Amino acid sequence: MTTFESGPAVAISLSPVPLTQDVRPPATQTSFDYDVAIVGLGYVGLPTALAYHAAGSRVLALDLSQRRLSTIRAQDADLLDGDRRRLATALQDEGFALTDDQELLSRAAAIVVCVPTPVDVHLVPDLSLLAAAAATAVAAAVVGQLLMLTSTTYIGCTEDFLVTPLRKRGLAVGSDVHVVFSAERINPGVDQFSQEVVPRVVGGATPACEEAGATLLGRYADAVHRVSSLEVAEMTKILENTFRAVNIALANEFADICSSLGVPVTEVIDAAATKPYGFMPFYPGPGVGGHCIPCDPHYLLWQLKEERVDAPMIAQAMTRIAARPRQVVDRIRDLLLQLGLGLEGTRVHVIGIAYKPDVADLRESPALEILSHLDALGVDLAYTDSHIPSALLHSGRLLESIDDPSSFDADLILIHTRHTGEDLSWIRADQVILDSTYRGTDLPGRHLL
Prior knowledge:
With about 450 residues, this protein is an alpha/beta fold. It contains 11 helices and 15 strands. The chain has helices at about 45-55, 65-75, 80-90, 130-140, 155-170, 205-215, 230-260, 265-270, 290-305, 310-340, 365-375, and strands spanning about 35-40, 60, 95-100, 110-115, 145-150, 180, 200-205, 225, 345-350, 380-385, 390, 400, 410-415, 430-435, 445. An 8-stranded mixed beta sheet has the order 3-2-1-4-5-6-7-8, with helices on both faces. The chain has a 5-stranded parallel beta sheet with strand order 10-9-13-14-15, with helices on one face. A two-stranded antiparallel sheet has the order 11-12. The chain is globular, with a radius of gyration of 23 Å.
């Protein structure tokens, strides 16, 4: 049985990949017990499952991690308040099945794959989870089903991982089964835009596939934007996140420029944002975390290497983003030197280590790299984060959030992530503060990067 739990990075060719050796004649399903099956119940999959259920669909919510399933059943998953209420309702409904049984996938009218697509330490795409989940979906496929990928990936991945293997099974794509790509559009920790109001982009392997995909998404999304192919839909997601990466790199660069010229960068950005056209505000910070921005553009850069195509602007932006946490460490060193202190044995307290405010998510958080570098330099470290009880550094050292930050008596305090309602009244006026958020205007004597 195929699994899609975390595994090592694998090198996967861009040419079609045979993900299953199953050549059984395709089964025919005349009726389905579930309207949609969600494969992978992470920060995308679980809210997606809840959105479908809230819209009246019968949902099969599948994840192979017993720990994750237990967390969901205990209603301890990191969710927005609205999704917490949806989860409480769903868990009481027979129309919402939470399971690790992959055999049930053939009983769903649609299979939606929502698994992570990270990069490894060398910034090479790790497609192991997606390959396994896609293979599971292909093996379970029966006549009458729709298969959808939502995970960000390279251009042509849906063809390689779903269309080609399904055809090898003897299933006619566009008639026996339908295949579409529609990237997720979820902003963790931010409830300004619900899933229902954010338009979904969908591309199909055939016009009939596109129609089927639009119908499925229309079960909960108010607007569905159709595009002409799988590849257009895949590239749309890459453009969205590459756009953000380039502009964040630019904002960081402007922060450095403004610092050199003695100009407050956030005031400049806020002023520019008053223009009602032609400008979108992006703000500087200690680096970029989460799954999308630090990872997704690398899928494009990786693919372009085979095509011998350069993308210098994107490559430079990603290089600058990757260098930002080291810049924070260098700034800490400079501030300590001004105090007549070195790094070894000096006490540094980090406020907030989640990759963004109000989420319990450490994925690709710049704080991990900052803490790990400081740890390697012999700094005496502590951190406080109401959402992250513990963190494993690159060295294998486990740090735990301290309940009373004032007890640490830090020589320097780094403001990395400030959650809503964070009380920083314990900070003394004589303590050195490095505000990497650029937003702590209420903090006395703060320094910026």
